[in-house]
Amino acid sequence: MIPDEYGIPMDRTQQHSSSRTASEVYARTAMDLHIARNMIKLQGGTLTLNHANNIMVVTVPIDHRS
């Protein structure tokens, strides 16, 4: 299997098929954002999206004790 640009493994039949519907792309993006938000939240941070300006802000606390 070869990973595509979204990080999801593809088999050889999918490798040559680049026709994805908008709903498939949206579903993958939504899942990726959900995973990213959960990982950031586990670190005590936040993920904020501004759809109007296409801006994503990630905040994560830094431990200054070290």
What does this protein look like?
The protein has a two-stranded antiparallel ribbon with strand order 1-2. Strands 3-4 form a two-stranded antiparallel sheet. The protein has two helices and four strands, in the order E-E-H-H-E-E. The chain is of the alpha+beta class and 66 residues long.
Give a topology summary:
Blueprint: E1 2-3, E2 9-10, H1 12-15, H2 22-42, E3 46-50, E4 55-59
Antiparallel strand pairs: 1-2, 3-4
What amount of the residues lies in strands? Answer: 15-25%
Order of helices and strands: EEHHEE
Cα end-to-end separation = 42 Å
| Uncertain parts | none
| Largest beta sheet: strand ordering | 1-2
- Please provide the count of β strands: 4
Alpha carbon gyration radius:
16 Å
Name the overall outline: elongated
The largest sheet is: 2 strands, antiparallel
- The overall pLDDT, averaged over residues, is 76
Q: How many DSSP H or I helices?
A: 2
Q: Roughly how much helix do the residues carry, as a percent range? A: 25-40%
Q: What structural class do helix, strand and pairing data support? A: alpha+beta
